[in-house]
Fold this sequence. Notes:
Elements: H1 27-49, H2 52-58, H3 64-80, H4 82-118, E1 125-127, E2 130-132, H5 135-164, H6 172-206, H7 209-229, H8 243-256, E3 305-306, E4 309-310, H9 318-335, H10 338-345, H11 350-355, E5 358-359, E6 361-362, E7 366-367, H12 375-400, H13 408-440, E8 448-451, H14 456-480, H15 486-515, H16 533-555
Helix pairs in contact: 1-5, 1-6, 1-7, 2-3, 3-5, 3-15, 4-5, 4-7, 4-15, 5-15, 6-7, 6-12, 6-14, 10-15, 10-16, 12-14, 13-14, 13-16, 14-15
Amino acid sequence: xxxxxxxxxxGTVDIHxxxxxxxxxxxxxxxxxxxxxxxxxxxxxYGMGTNLVNYLKTRLNQGNVTAANNVTNWSGTCYITPLIGxxxxxxxxxxxxxxxxxxxxxxxxxxxxxxxxxxxxxxxSCDKTGxxxxxxxxxxxxxxxYLIALGTGGIKPxxxxxxxxxxxxxxxxxxxxxxxxxxxxxxxxxxxALIASSVLVWIQMNVGWGWGFGIPAVAMAxxxxxxxxxxxxxxxxxxxxxxxxRIVQVIVASFRKYxxxxxxxxxxxxxxxxxxxxxxxxxxxxHTDKLRxxxxxAVETQTDNVKDLANPWRLCTVTQVExxxxxxxxxxxxxxxxxxxxVYSQMNTMxxxxxxxxxxxIGPHFEIPSASLSLFDTLSVLFWAPVYDIFIVPLAxxxxxxxxxxxxxxxxxxxxxxxxxxxxxAGVLEVVRLNIVKRNNYYDLKYIPMSIFWQVPQYFxxxxxxxxxxxxxxxxxxxxxxxxxxxxxxxxxxxTVALGNYLSTVLVTIxxxxxxxxGRLGWIxxxxxxxxxxxxxxxxxxxxxxxxxxxxxIASRYxxxx
Length: 562
């Protein structure tokens, strides 16, 4: 191997801060530890989150609307806190140490959650009439829940980017493997989710919540061990300083030079003469012609220097300007993912509540908890992720000529279409279920004689949509992010899930308030046999169709990063 081929060319270093050796670090040999960590961490997360709505109903005595809103509010927070972790990773600690630090908070939260469900004085007391949680017990439970939200927020935006960092963008062979990494990364997530939605949900409903939350806590501890075990093999990107400061500097400099003309020759714009970028851990970006107003920040004037040094609040490099442009270009694509995330969030709320009213028996003695039906979403992902990578990509490549089969934007668009069909399928099932209720006067029957397995198609479609949209989103935001902002952009993509959960909360609240006027029961009463959950599914299907057409318009005008 030639001297210049021994080390990576993307600026990564090893755990000892030496240039990363291609042979000894990175690639799939380090990724197996990252994938193992992600599998166990997701087992912990889904192990306590999948069935959370039933814990809130049975142990904390919350109604359907309150329980569903508490779940979506918490889930939303889990996808907002990544902005904190991403900022710390990109600006100060780097992805490796951010994952390590927030993992500790995560383990503390999981431990406290287990204690709140198993230790007398912390867990609600229950008798034949139900459970009677005190204010203190409820407070401990929610404190542990939001500690977990903070812990997962530090990990979530860093892990996928950290895995992708193990492949050198400047090496064609390694670059091709990166796309496969995102598929297998999502595959590992769903291996953890499969165990959570089947085994752990059954334990929670049949053995006890102490064991049901304790096992995920142990899984999180194992995830931490997995992560540290691969330390000597990892490639680390150096933190590049505060990305938010650089963004604000470009905005301030642009407005300060509001009346300055941008030269027609773009080579006159300010950029460092060195081959290396001044931003730690980043490569230079080519100038683009969109959003030209911000080019003013890179126009040199006589007032830019202070003591022969450029004032960063008056003069920015082209790469800095292009970083801001990259973020702005991402925002419309980002916004179009919110409705998809709203549809996705129904799996842990409305799908579970719908399943609670159906026959959950498998044979005469065994009952499957309604939350365990999400394992069919997981199985769908486990089926479609390798099928996409092994069969669909090579087949699509023959027709499109694109190295990845579809562009990431095309991939995401296909997922949006599939998600619409999942809502239509759920709506049709609810219409059939309510017809059975009406025809047989089953209004006050707890379980109607209709198998819960009729829900499988809607879960399977959501899983298929995930493989296209969520994995496409992971890949898109990593590829299009500036080098020193990849954690931040990964966090930005995750906030669509947060806003999707919050939007679900808003929609459920509005629907509940509007449809219960004048003493009516509304669309989503505690007794769904007397409601119209199907109307809520139709509403989400309509929003999904409108969102898809907006997405098509946005995607057709997107300019990829150079």
